[in-house]
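Below is a filled-in request sheet from our internal design queue. Each sheet records the structural input a requester submitted and the sequence that came back. We keep these sheets so that new team members can see what a complete request looks like end to end.

REQUESTER: design group, bay 2
PRIORITY: normal
MODE: inverse folding
CHAIN LENGTH: 232
BACKBONE (tokenized):
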């Protein structure tokens, strides 16, 4: 059962002498209910691959699927709809709206999509991530780790097919980072959530079920059930 798939994906930025080939025929299948980490040196194409899989960026050649839905050839409007309904995002910089409370931030994607919240599911996510007593706080009243946990709840509350996390622990100390990673891993174990995470950090990658290594725009290696030692 595959939650997202890249089939011979090429991505070329620019043209002529300024041309950059960011992805060179990438094939990757992301199994449903698994936590996949994407690692590789800076400039190896990690962000580009994630953006293509999430429908944030178009591919130059090849095909991308989320569930059974083929993204390649969709209009911008269809892609926007897909991102609202099937995909969740977690960013390095949290990207919370400063004037909204934690609860309002968490429910905003549902509100924008005009979807009704499932209160029972909201409660389950909040209690699992431990944010019950922080729901009325604004981002500036929360620690970095708490803000990222709010962002995790926001990503999960719409029950997306896939959650994409781009360096989710990049701005956190190791303790807050471990809490966030522990929650992401639990959401895979307990809720069957599918997660794809880009990271530079071998310790973060060790929380995943599988690590895909990119170099120079191609998949060069893969590791199942990683430990931090093995990732290094
Ligand atoms: P990573 O996430 O592994 O650091 P990226 O996917 O950001 O790698 O970048 C892969 C390559 O594509 C790099 O050479 C980068 O400079 C280039 N690149 C990424 N985005 C763009 C863009 N919008 N325009 C031009 N080149 C880009
Ligand atoms: P990340 O920290 O996620 O790897 P980057 O710093 O590589 O992000 O890129 C930040 C933004 O700039 C991204 O949207 C990426 O597509 C774009 N970008 C990266 N490299 C280039 C480039 N060489 N030319 C133009 N845009 C780029």
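RETURNED SEQUENCE:
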């Amino acid at each position: 059962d595959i939650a997202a798939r890249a089939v011979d994906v090429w991505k070329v930025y620019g043209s002529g002498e300024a041309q950059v080939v960011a992805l060179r025929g990438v094939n990757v299948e992301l199994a449903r209910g698994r936590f996949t980490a994407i690692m590789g040196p800076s400039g190896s194409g990690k962000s580009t691959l994630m953006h293509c899989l999430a429908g944030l960026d178009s591919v130059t050649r090849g095909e991308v699927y989320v569930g059974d839905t083929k993204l390649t050839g969709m209009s911008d409007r269809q892609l926007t709809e897909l991102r609202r309904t099937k995909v969740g995002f977690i960013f390095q910089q949290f990207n919370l709206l400063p004037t909204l409370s934690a609860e309002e931030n968490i429910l905003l994607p549902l509100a924008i999509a005009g979807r009704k919240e499932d209160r029972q599911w909201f409660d389950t996510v909040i209690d699992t991530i431990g944010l019950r007593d922080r729901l009325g706080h604004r981002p500036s009243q929360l620690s970095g780790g708490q803000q990222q946990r709010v962002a995790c709840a926001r990503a999960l509350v719409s029950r997306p097919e896939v959650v994409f996390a781009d360096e989710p622990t990049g701005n956190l100390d190791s303790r807050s980072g471990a809490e966030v990673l522990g929650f992401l891993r639990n959401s895979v174990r307990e809720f069957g959530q599918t997660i794809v995470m880009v990271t530079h950090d071998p310790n973060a990658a060790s929380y995943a079920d599988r690590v895909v290594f990119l170099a120079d725009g191609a998949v060069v290696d893969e590791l199942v059930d990683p430990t931090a030692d093995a990732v290094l």
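SHEET NOTES:
- The radius of gyration is 17 Å.
- The chain has a mean pLDDT of 94.
FILED BY: M.R.
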